[in-house]
Sequence to fold (818 residues):
Amino acid sequence: MASLASAAEEFQFNTDILDLKDQQNLDLGLFSKANFILPGQYNLVVHVNRDSLPETSVDYIAPEDDPKGSVACISPALVAELGLKKQRMNQLAWWHQGNCLDISSIPGMTVRGDLGASALYLNIPQDALEYTASNWDPPSRWDEGISGFLFDYNFNAQTMDYAGPQASDQQLTGNGTAGFNLGAWRLRADWQGQVHKTSGKPSQRQFAWSRYYASRAIPALRAHLSLGENYLDSNLFGSVRYTGASLATSDNMLPPNLRGYAPEVSGVARTNARVLVTQQGRILYDTQVPAGPFRIQDLSDAVSGKLDVRVEEQDGSVQEFQLDTASIPYLSRPGTVRYKVSAGRPSDWEHEPDGPEFASGEFSWGVSNGWSLYGGALGAQDYRSLAVGVGRDLMAFGALAVDVTQSNARLAQIGQRQGKSYRASYSKRFEDYDSQVTFAGYRFSEEDFMTMNDFIEARRSGRLNNQSKEMYTATLSKNFRDQNLSLYFNYNHQTYWNNAPSDRYSLSLSRYFNLGGLKNLGLSLTAYRSQSHGAVDEGAYLSLSLPWGDSGSVSYNSTLNRGSSGHSLSYYDRPDERNSYMLSAGTASDGNTASGYLNHEGSLADVTASASYQAGRYRSAGLAVQGGATLTAEGAALHRITTLGGTRLLLDTNGVAGVPVQGNGASTYSNRFGKAVVADMNSYYRNQASINLDQLADDLEAGRSVTQATLTEGAIGYRRFGIVSGSKGMVRILLPDASPPPFGSGVYNARGQETGIIGEDGLVYLSGMQVGDLMSVQWDGKAQCDFALTEQVNADDPQAQFVCRPLATREIQSPSNP
Fold:
């Protein structure tokens, strides 16, 4: 048992060196052993090497061979979260009737407790642990979170008034997710609605619960299970809305450097605009952007297939185009298999069946170091599809994959259709040249080739629409650091067998430079061209900006579109981390213009307001509000959010309001109940949340200011901070006979937090003092007496004193009349 007691060394103190009046009234027992902790139960944050686990209850037990000592009992439940390798788990030994780990069974492991930091430090040799990264934990440390309700929303309102006989137009749209977490299960319902009013016409109202589903992670399989209404997430067979079940290995469960590609949408807004990204009518992203170039990069990497992008300008014009969310080559690490299995029946927005039952499966197998074999099959009544491909990691030359898909469809109105589709894809990061081809691909489909979605639409309408022929897609980025120049290029080209081709490309250049006495000037140019169904939209945007003040900038902007042009002068400022705004005025070919844009990242919601005006043509305004509500047994809070229904972390500040907390790049404050939610946490990724000590009020004290959490997808995590709230000051504590407690005694509040140590003559500097609190004084290993704070203590009054009564009497005395 000696190997269990890491705090073994005892110290003898020479008390003669202490300049004390009462040399006999000392209690230094707590300091006689290194890191000695009294036997009992403590809530501690467990640190494994450099990583942190959630706060847990840890028992300190006196070993049989050392009744005056104590050792931390590492329970089987805690061991399961340490991330030990399987072979190590099988070699563990236990003591205390199998309830505590014998740390000698893990050579090199040490244990140290620190009550001052409310922490238990476990040092474990790395070769005994599963693979970890600086921002990723093994499945044994994944946290399913707590049960609770959530309601996330995104509302977007716009009003436009046109000059002359044209009509005014008002529109309110909304979408969101309601859900309930129960253990590992995530129950979700997506909704979206619209109210549209045009002068002279009746209002149009729409509302629908667009999707019901349940899902959960299965860590043992590195997979995600989904039941209910879903979209077929396939790199081979496209996207189909269906009702059924799916089981798929999740890239999100892999370390971040092995995860997949998330699509991004780029474009140029001519005015303040609303950008709406949908897929088969389902809203994926809805936001407002200021005039100028925009790039949306926070779409989920689970999105696949074609995306419909709609840019609604405040001058009433609309841009529409499609993007294909092509993925990087489907490669797997050597010896691993990634798979997706789905079964169900296509369904429509009314939750009714819309096609025959089907089953699909696909896989990627890492055959060897560099080679991957992938493929799959999809089968339904009157439709079959089979795909096979091979991928090769070309090391310094990137990664390449080629595949072929064969389809066979039989339609009553059209007849038998059988064809092939060929695809090649490539990606490469050129580190030496500081450039990256995010994705480049080519696909050719024969005239009779049909995807599952083509088959369902033809079955419904009785004719073939938009039969794909050729597709090119590429995204390229390049930095020229010597010239402070960055380049970004995106290109999509699609031809059809029975429709006009569509093209979309955009090119962005930006450069920072100095000119004379002016420093850090920025010059950017964005050009784009979009052609779809015979309609062409093209334009360019030029901006020259220079810093102005501490956080602002002034810019000259020029726009050129088909048939119109404009010039404006803008001022942008971000006065603090929560607010930013832009004011602009200028002239256009058809009238003078003015606009404003304001964004506020509030604790309760993210609010964006905008307004535009053009003389003689129109005036318009927009307002977007996005946020959420989370309700659990541990507390509730309103908060802002970006990913609807996504992962979040509920922070408990021990009932103290107004505590500044931050995490994942966002900051907020605890509400009146001492709760705050940090949203948009990364799933299966080690997230960190902390208290902003620079903004912490003077009467607050944080024993621990940083916490970590690795949460499964959609989880509501929960972490508690030990905040001590109240005044601070020097007081005197005496016993009923007017003698002081022993020197070195500890003073604790009702929550078990140590708030001071008794000095000479009973003087102690206490923190967290609040009227009505009951404080206890401990020596000889236990609480001996207590006293109540019945009046506010003035930190500048050295005469404040309290009588500490034995626990048996518990008499409360006033500090002014002890």
About this structure: Confidence is low (pLDDT under 50) at residues 1-9, 810-818. Helices lie at 76-79, 86-89, 452-461. The longest strand covers residues 415-430. The CA atoms of residues 788 and 812 lie 6 Å apart.
